[in-house]
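FORM 12-B: Structure-to-Sequence Request
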């Protein structure tokens, strides 16, 4: 039988699809090893997935729960079971028809404790810029006075408290250990410290004194220069061996925008893997931005799809009402890290104001060291232009050799810095590829930190819209826009990844689905139209509690509902939200008195949606699931999300999960889905199995338009070989308007059978009334024949 896509041959003789039918992401760590993943393989195979997607597997900081803090590219992580365990997992997967996809981290490595775990960095610190490993890292030796600043000490005066171990040839500060430069061990302490190729410093010095490229603002993750062919070869040898051996058939590239030249890197990677390896990139696209067509990849990891799926279940009118109320409900509050409350943006009245304030603040405070490097590079006359051009750039980054900043971006920057200055920076970007690369890398870090990790926590009228790749100021997506996106995806990137929940999403899809119903019923917030009121379920008169955090508490509680351990999980999420916002407290300057009162904002009882909104949330959960699994692209199911899954921001979304093995077995044995979790599981399994067993159904794309008084609440499309998906959108408004009434859908020619529905086996032809088709479930999957 034809698989409908090209295949490759591994050394084991197993033919592996270039593009998976679907992937299932698991989070590996000391509590969930290769052996534990192997035990889940039979269940995942029965669920219908084609590939198991593993979080990073190379050696990482001991105890790491995520693996993005790589310490050794040459070894598979021992804590997970080592290379033998990984190969055993791959063999178990092949025996059940599953391939493996690896998440790899080319942009950065850990600055670990102990430091010697990162051998390249250790050697650079010992031998300085003449070390053969110096090419691994972007270190500004001149800017650091010939030393690498290591902001690892807990206090300002600890630098003079080092202890020399001459026998071991190391310098120690408590748990920290550093190599000694040859011939310096016998020097008096002040001279010894001055003679090293590094300077151990108070962690606060990182903001202004750091002289190595890092991941975002995280100083214990140092950037890696994979643009150097030798560094690429050394850091990718193990991964490429696993690809060549048939252990791995796909790669997810973490934070591709952090690289000096993403396209060059991807071309080198493609040449090394061959055409048989499925490759997707973690690339955050603005709403109207497109992935460069020249990149030799299958597409992105899917945040662009997430935004469209979420947005089509968001009511624009209600979202606007929530935004007005939110803009009015908060006072500017106390000063944040930037000094004045207005600069911190805590009381901004719009998304645009909030984003602008956060961007300027992050660049000039959190990324001051990175900005200073670029300004020194450009010279004092162009320094203002560098700053304003970075702030004005609306996308994560531009690329070397690409078109550069848009005319609109240049115009916005020129309004502050002057046209001549901005034009000078633009000319420098064109003539100096190294400057252009570092400018772009800084731009990517700036966008991520200022939007995802700050502005999204300050502007939260509708929390379901504050997700990576989203637009909190314009969260709704029309049905026409959704269809246009899907048609474009099918035409240009049919094997791109799509996601709803990941290890990085601030709220799982099911939590967002519950919160999104507030856009249909803003009055459920209890504050719309009456900003002075405290939301229901939040205690009144909490000293020092700001209204906007109370708003976040209310929506978070509605999203989580009666989930296990809800109080401690909500308190942890609210504390993180307050620190990330950086208005009243922060990670670097916590206000202990303020933080002590945050837990008081957690409702004492579970905050459940009223029955009518709970039914609307059910329609959202099932509708989002259907669109995700039936639309173009390669869908990824995050661990546990095949069932009802409510999680908040990490680390909450990385908690160990229990796979619903018994529930799936019961459904397969004929049991009726008795609750939302089982309804979602039945729908997920039906679509994943269709994707795996009949991949030819999932090609092409065409919208289907309903006719009748409620046509706008029907989102339907066909994959022309023989599949139809029908979802209900804005179902609370639909019910208030009288339901479907005579609204009907004209089916393409043929007999269409229901798959995975409440009435399996039902067959339809021609015109079908939606009140009949969607009588028991708010979604339907139909297959011709």
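FORM 12-B RESPONSE
SEQUENCE OUT:
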């Amino acid at each position: 039988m034809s698989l409908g896509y090209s295949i490759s041959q591994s050394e084991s003789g197993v033919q592996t699809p270039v593009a998976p039918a679907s992937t299932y992401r698991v989070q590996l760590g000391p509590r969930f090893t290769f052996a534990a993943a192997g035990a889940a393989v039979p269940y995942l195979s029965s669920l219908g997935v084609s590939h198991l997607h593993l979080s990073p597997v190379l050696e990482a900081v001991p105890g790491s729960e995520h693996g993005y803090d790589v310490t050794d590219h040459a070894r598979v992580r021992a804590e997970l079971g080592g290379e033998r365990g990984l190969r055993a997992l791959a063999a178990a997967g092949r025996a059940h028809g599953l391939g493996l996809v690896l998440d790899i981290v080319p942009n950065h490595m850990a600055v670990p404790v102990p430091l010697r775990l990162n051998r390249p960095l250790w050697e650079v610190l010992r031998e300085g810029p003449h070390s053969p490993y110096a090419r691994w890292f972007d270190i500004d030796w001149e800017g650091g006075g010939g030393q690498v600043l290591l902001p690892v000490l807990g206090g300002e005066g600890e630098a003079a408290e080092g202890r020399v171990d001459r026998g071991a040839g190391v310098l120690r500060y408590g748990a920290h250990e550093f190599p000694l430069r040859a011939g310096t061990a016998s020097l008096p302490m002040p001279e010894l410290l001055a003679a090293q190729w590094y300077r151990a410093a108070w962690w606060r010095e990182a903001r202004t004194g750091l002289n190595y490229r890092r991941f975002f603002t995280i100083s214990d993750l140092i950037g890696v220069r994979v643009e150097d062919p030798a560094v690429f070869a050394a850091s990718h040898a193990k991964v490429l061996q696993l690809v060549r051996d048939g252990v791995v058939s796909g790669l997810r590239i973490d934070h591709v925008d952090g690289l000096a030249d993403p396209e060059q890197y991807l071309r080198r990677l493609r040449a090394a893997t061959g055409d048989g390896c499925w490759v997707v990139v973690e690339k955050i696209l603005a709403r109207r931005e497109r992935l460069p067509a020249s990149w030799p990849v299958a597409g992105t990891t899917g945040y662009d799809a997430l935004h469209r799926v979420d947005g089509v279940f968001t009511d624009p009118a209600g979202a606007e009402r929530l935004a007005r109320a939110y803009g009015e409900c908060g006072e500017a509050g106390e000063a944040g890290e930037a000094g004045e409350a207005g600069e911190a943006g805590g009381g901004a009245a719009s998304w645009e104001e909030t984003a602008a304030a956060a961007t300027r603040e992050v660049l000039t405070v959190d990324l001051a060291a990175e900005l200073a490097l670029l300004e020194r590079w450009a010279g004092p006359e162009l320094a203002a232009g560098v700053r304003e051009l970075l702030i004005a750039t609306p996308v994560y980054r531009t690329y070397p050799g690409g078109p550069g900043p848009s005319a609109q971006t240049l115009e916005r920057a020129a309004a502050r810095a002057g046209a001549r200055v901005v034009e000078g920076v633009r000319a420098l970007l064109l003539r100096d590829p190294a400057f252009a690369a570092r400018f772009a890398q800084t731009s990517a870090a700036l966008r991520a930190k200022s939007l995802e990790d700050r502005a999204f926590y300050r502007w939260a009228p509708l929390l379901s819209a504050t997700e990576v790749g989203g637009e909190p100021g314009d969260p709704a997506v029309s049905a026409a826009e959704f269809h246009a996106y899907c048609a474009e995806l099918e035409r240009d990137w049919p094997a791109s990844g799509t996601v709803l929940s990941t290890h990085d999403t601030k709220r799982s899809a099911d939590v967002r689905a519950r919160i999104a119903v507030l856009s249909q019923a803003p009055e459920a917030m209890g504050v719309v139209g009456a900003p002075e009121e405290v939301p229901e379920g939040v205690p009144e008169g909490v000293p020092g509690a700001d209204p906007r955090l109370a708003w976040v508490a209310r929506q978070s509680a509605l999203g989580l509902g009666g989930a296990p351990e809800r109080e401690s999980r909500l308190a942890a999420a609210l504390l993180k939200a307050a620190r990330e916002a950086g208005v009243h407290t922060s990670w670097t300057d916590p206000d202990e008195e303020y933080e002590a009162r945050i837990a008081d904002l957690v409702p004492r009882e579970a905050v459940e949606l009223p029955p009518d909104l709970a039914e609307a949330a059910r329609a959202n959960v099932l509708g989002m699931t259907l669109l995700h699994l039936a639309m173009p692209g390669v869908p990824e199911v995050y661990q546990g999300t095949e069932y009802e899954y409510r999680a908040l921001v990490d680390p909450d979304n990385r908690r160990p999960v229990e796979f619903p093995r018994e529930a799936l077995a019961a459904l397969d044995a004929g049991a009726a889905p008795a609750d939302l979790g089982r309804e979602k599981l039945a729908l997920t399994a039906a679509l994943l199995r269709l994707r795996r067993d009949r991949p030819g159904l999932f090609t092409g794309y065409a919208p289907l338009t309903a006719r009748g008084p409620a046509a706008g609440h029907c989102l339907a499309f066909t994959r022309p070989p023989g599949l139809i998906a029908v979802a209900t959108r804005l179902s609370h408004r639909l019910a208030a308007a009288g339901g479907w009434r005579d609204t009907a859908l004209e089916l393409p020619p043929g007999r269409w059978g229901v798959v995975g529905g409440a009435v399996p086996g039902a067959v339809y032809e021609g015109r079908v009334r939606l009140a009949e088709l969607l009588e028991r479930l708010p979604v339907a999957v139909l297959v011709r024949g």
